[in-house]
Amino acid sequence: AVPTAEQLTAVPHYFIQSHEVSSPLSAADYEKEALEKLEEQFLLHDTVIVCGGSGLYLQALATGLDPLPPADPEYREKLETILETEGVDTLAQRLKLIDPEKAAGMDLKNPRRVIRALEILHAGPIQVDKSTQKVRNFKVISLSLNLDREELYKRIDKRVEQMMETGLLDEVKNLLAWRESSALQTVGYRELFDHLDGIYTLEEAVEKIKQHTRNYAKRQLTWFRNKGEYNEVRNFEEALASIQAFMAKQEI
Q1: Does pTM top 0.90 for this prediction?
Q2: Among 70, 111, 72, CA closest to 89
Q3: pLDDT per residue over 102-146, tens digit each?
Q4: Which of 80, 84, 147, 188 has the fewest CB atoms lying closer than 10 Å?
């Protein structure tokens, strides 16, 4: 959901409603554009906060991504056929069997991401030249917010209700023409598209959004924890203390 007008006024935000739904933004695209924005910001500020939920995109910005193998058209066609005839759950189950760790950190209801993950695994590992690995001219402290599970779920439910109250359904109706876009294969849009197709009542769709968001939050926490480079914090005070300790070390 888009931050409120008050939030956008209080703190400058970037990459909010900045790209067309019809133009996919890959992690590599984001890396390039976000690094350009960081260069601008570091001319004005010593410290910049990057906030987001997609671990892959955060990794792309902080350390860069390993090169990916090219797509195999025949294998892609096979996966697309399975998607069309059996659905994304069959593909997700295949991914879980091949690489449970990767599956644990993904939105398994997003067919485009599941298919690409299977393609990469199918291609096998590629040789990475260590001498060409990316170097960043800034230091990073990575924080992962890990609330009490009951509190987290309460906040998720409240956030979904706020999104509905502020017009999410109307937004989805206006995006029907682009419903196959990869940007819309995400929690919140999928369930309301299904509602508009008559699969769910509106109440059922809202409950599905809450449930799927809770599931996604659990996968995110697993992904961040498995990376091993994120400091878990439970509130603003712990986050601030971690940042201050990190910055104090940089000044020594």
Answers
A1: no
A2: 111
A3: 888 778 888 888 998 898 888 876 654 554 457 899 999 999 999
A4: 84
